[in-house]
Automatic annotation (TrEMBL):
PROSITE patterns in alphabetical order: HTH_ARAC_FAMILY_2
Coiled coil spans: none
Protein name, entry field: Transcriptional regulator
Pfam family, one: DJ-1_PfpI
Domain HTH araC/xylS-type: 211-303
The entry's keywords: Transcription, Transcription regulation
Amino acid sequence: MPRVVFLLIPRVHLLDVAGPAQVFSTADDLGHPYTLTYLAEDEEVATVQGLTLQAQSAWPPLRPEDLIIVPGWRGPTRPASSQTLRRLREHHASGGTIAGVCAGADALGRAGLLDGRRCTTHHTVQDELARLYPRAQVVKDTLYIEDERIVTSAGVASGIDVALHLVTTRHGPYAAGQVARSMLIHIHRDGKAEQISPLFRRRSHADETVHRLQDLIETRFTERLPLSLLAEATRCSERTVTRLFRRATGLTPLAYQTALRLERAEHLLGTGATAEAAAREVGFEDARTLRRLRARSAAPPDR
């Protein structure tokens, strides 16, 4: 039976532990056996959220099929000891997989496991990770990355996505889908997905008129929403609507609506919908339009 070892660092984030643990526990309930082990250098580990976790301090014997997950924490905290870092290196060298959730990437970096590999972490500390480990290839604004059995992620809720990815790798997409359905997860996000959804990325402004426009677009994004309708809803001129919206979000109302459509279409495609069905459901005329817009959004920006 494969073992999933959670290496707990003091001031660990509770969701970084609980999310992946729930995925593998649910997989076990559904017939894909796993043993979950919580390991730490001290047997009591305080979480940032105030709950104290119990862990064992003795390392179990590990095989290549076993996983080590290093959840993120909030500093300052005592880093992992040289002995613990050696254990991480040894497990990877024997063929094992190690996943760092959020700041867990720092432990992997200290162990030398990020050198020459693509990796990521939470968007607020990506620059710091790149500074600390210049031999790593830090990829910004992506949910998770796997490179030679080293998995890193943005952390918090994305730890669930990483765990589902690992279940998919080991047992196939159907098994991961069963786990996601049991956990009431509406979408299993691909690792290449942006860390911040368009629904939130463009909301860090104080313009109430634009917030009302965004509410309207998000509620009816599959419909045709002419500029005249948006102007009428806010009692502004069409020109004012465009100016305010672009100033607050960096996008036109149409571009914002298109981004929401594409995000929903990606989810539908990821759950097995055809391009034609996904295009129709989100309001595009046909699959050709969806393919063209997806290609455009994936293209690197002009320099």
